[in-house]
């Protein structure tokens, strides 16, 4: 069930925190890597008398999805892939984004096996989703515990509509594994080579990433698994 784009109740926020391995911030906690440091009360502080609270709407609504190892079957089959993914929060404004981002654990703090997604509203982070079915993804790997800042940069580039072919973007996922963390950027039309290569090159620029990255078609990934080969490079 997708979370509606309506004002969130405290119960909804509590559920989001629980399912995303959140940890309430203590006053004496050290800031996590990639976390915005400063006056975090400014967005929620009371406005001056007579001034209405101001919010900044995003061009698209976005949903965070969470996939925990604890929710996955012991022996997951290929056809069961994605069955444990759950939507936890849909945001429509800049302020809502920072509210959830600052109150969930970042990739370096998530347990091994976790997948944390951010996709456009009503697009499920599954190969079988009608919007994603003919698409593919770019992937950037990072050593374990080193992807926090780059995950944030990816989110800001997506929700801030910084890509020239932003209509091609479905969403992004960070996969937390034992030896590394991988950030993947999902797109709609894998056969549109010009758009995909443009997205890959721009993404590398946003991340200041200098290594070669590859683009894999979802169709190949479903059919060949780890044997799927890069169709494009950037």
UniProtKB/TrEMBL annotation:
Instruction: Check the record and name the InterPro entries matching this protein.
Output: TIF_eIF4e-like (IPR023398), TIF_eIF_4E (IPR001040)
Name the family the entry cites.
Answer: Belongs to the eukaryotic initiation factor 4E family.
Q: Which GO terms describe its biological process?
A: defense response to virus; regulation of translation
**Name this protein carries in UniProt:** Eukaryotic translation initiation factor 4E-1
User: Which segments show compositional bias classed as Acidic residues?
Assistant: 27-38
Q: Which UniProt keywords apply?
A: Disulfide bond, Initiation factor, Protein biosynthesis, RNA-binding, Translation regulation
Start and end residues of each stretch annotated as Disordered: 1-52
**Any one Gene Ontology molecular-function term assigned to this protein's record:** translation initiation factor activity
Cite the record's Basic and acidic residues compositional bias ranges. Answer: 14-26
Q: Pfam families from the entry?
A: IF4E (PF01652)
List the record's Gene Ontology CC terms alphabetically. Answer: eukaryotic translation initiation factor 4F complex
């Amino acid at each position: 069930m997708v979370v509606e784009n309506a004002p969130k109740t405290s119960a909804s926020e509590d559920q989001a925190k629980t399912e995303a391995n959140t940890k309430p911030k203590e006053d004496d906690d050290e800031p996590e890597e990639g976390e915005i440091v400063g006056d975090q009360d400014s967005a929620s502080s009371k406005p001056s008398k007579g001034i209405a609270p101001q919010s900044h709407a995003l061009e698209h609504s976005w949903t965070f999805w969470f996939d925990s190892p604890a929710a996955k079957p012991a022996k997951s089959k290929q056809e069961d892939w994605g069955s444990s993914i759950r939507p936890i929060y849909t945001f429509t404004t800049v302020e809502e984004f920072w509210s959830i981002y600052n109150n969930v654990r970042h990739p370096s703090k998530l347990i091994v096996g976790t997948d944390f997604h951010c996709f456009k509203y009503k697009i499920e982070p599954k190969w079988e989703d009608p919007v994603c079915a003919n698409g593919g993804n770019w992937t950037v790997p990072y050593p374990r515990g080193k992807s926090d800042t780059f995950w944030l940069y990816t989110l800001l580039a997506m929700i801030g509509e910084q890509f020239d072919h932003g209509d091609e973007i479905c969403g992004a996922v960070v996969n937390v594994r034992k030896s590394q963390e991988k950030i993947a950027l999902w797109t709609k039309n894998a056969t549109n080579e010009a758009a995909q290569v443009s997205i890959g090159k721009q993404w590398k620029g946003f991340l200041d990433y200098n290594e070669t990255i590859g683009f894999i078609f979802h169709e190949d990934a479903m059919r060949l698994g780890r044997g799927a080969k890069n169709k494009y490079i950037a």
